[in-house]
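#lab-general

N.A. 3:47 PM
ok so I finally got the sequence cleaned up, no stray characters, all 167 residues accounted for. can someone with queue access submit it? mine expired

B.Y. 3:52 PM
send it over

N.A. 3:53 PM
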Amino acid sequence: MRSRKGACALLTLALTVPVLAQSDQTSAPAAAGMAHHQHALGARRVSLRNQQPPCWKQAGISPETVNERWKIEDEDRVKTRGICSEAALSPEQKKEKIKQADKVRDAEIAKLISAKQLEAYNACKAERDQNRPKMTAVELGPCGGVIPPATNSAPHSHGNSTSPSGQ
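B.Y. 4:20 PM
back already:
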């Protein structure tokens, strides 16, 4: 009886040891992969620390104010889409209504952000935009049409150059 129990124990041990050895071998690459993954994340954290702070932060604009500005700009985009979809309006009437909506938007933003902060933000964005290559040579209008270069003499204040997109 004792030899039968001993044989069962030896058989169990013989079958268990290779399984345990395999699980250690398979966990080693997984552990190495995790170490590599953690190293990659650490390297990314270092590279993110070396980036410049966003222009809104450099201009002294609070995150709450930036979020409020984005909300105002989002609402303005919805208004613009509504104006563009009004079939009864001529293109000139649409353009005029969009100009009026832009003035309202700019006034609301001016209540949030001081002229000094806005000037610092715009200067920061202009400097960074100067170093970025331009992707397209044409500008699309608010209703989707292409704006000819001759009529685009003054950039809009709500374009990419003034949007606090975290840059």
